[in-house]
């Protein structure tokens, strides 16, 4: 659902995919190959939201702000299921984990990783390539080259999802029985722990 608000109409690049069960309102700019999942609420009613190229905002995420503020997701930002970004700037190629909360005027440096359930307090400045966990947040180490490569690969999978959704996603009636020839999906990407054996 795309809504005009107070004269502002969202701008969505034709290559992006906004799920019909997501809500995009007002002063929102969505770039190329962006994926917006079902249940996401991107609410540019009081300020501006810019989602640059190749980002993904997954299911049930919320993006909002205090009045007169700009929220910025830089290129290849990866916002995990259920996360909340409120009035913050998320740097290039950052991963924000599931159900994390990033508060007002936070700046997350490029290529950082924010853990699931992490809470980053207002006005914090997170240096580039930081691993951030906990509630309240704590920087526990630096992101390695291997971790950046792993995160980039995962985001590249999401970068292909908008085109796949445009080409194949459609309402349907469920099957009543499992077909014998149902194809198995490829395990093309693994969790960090499976790949590197690290926590």
TrEMBL record:
Keywords: Transferase
Gene3D superfamilies membership: Hexapeptide repeat proteins
Residue stretches spanning the membrane: none
Short name of any one Pfam family annotated for the protein: Hexapep
InterPro entries in the record: Hexapep, Transf_Hexapept/Carb_Anhydrase, Trimer_LpxA-like_sf
A GO term, aspect molecular function: transferase activity
Protein name: Transferase hexapeptide repeat family protein
Origin species: Pontibacter mangrovi
């Amino acid at each position: 659902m795309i809504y005009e608000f107070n004269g502002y109409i969202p701008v969505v690049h034709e290559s992006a995919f906004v799920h019909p069960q997501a809500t995009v309102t007002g002063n929102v700019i969505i770039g190329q190959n962006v994926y917006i999942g079902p249940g996401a609420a991107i609410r540019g009613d009081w300020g501006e939201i810019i989602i640059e190229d190749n980002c993904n905002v997954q299911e049930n995420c919320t993006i909002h702000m205090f009045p007169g503020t700009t929220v910025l997701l830089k290129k290849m930002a990866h916002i995990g299921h259920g996360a909340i970004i409120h009035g913050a700037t998320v740097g290039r190629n950052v991963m924000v984990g599931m159900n994390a909360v990033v508060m007002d005027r936070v700046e997350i440096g490029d290529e950082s990783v924010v853990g699931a359930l992490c809470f980053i307090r207002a006005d914090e400045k997170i240096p580039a390539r930081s691993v951030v966990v906990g509630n309240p947040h704590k920087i526990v180490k630096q992101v390695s080259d291997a971790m950046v490569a792993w995160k980039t690969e995962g985001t590249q999978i999401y970068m292909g999802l908008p085109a796949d959704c445009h080409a194949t996603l459609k309402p349907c009636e469920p099957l009543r029985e499992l077909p014998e020839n149902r194809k198995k999906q490829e395990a093309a990407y693994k969790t960090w722990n499976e790949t590197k054996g690290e926590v």
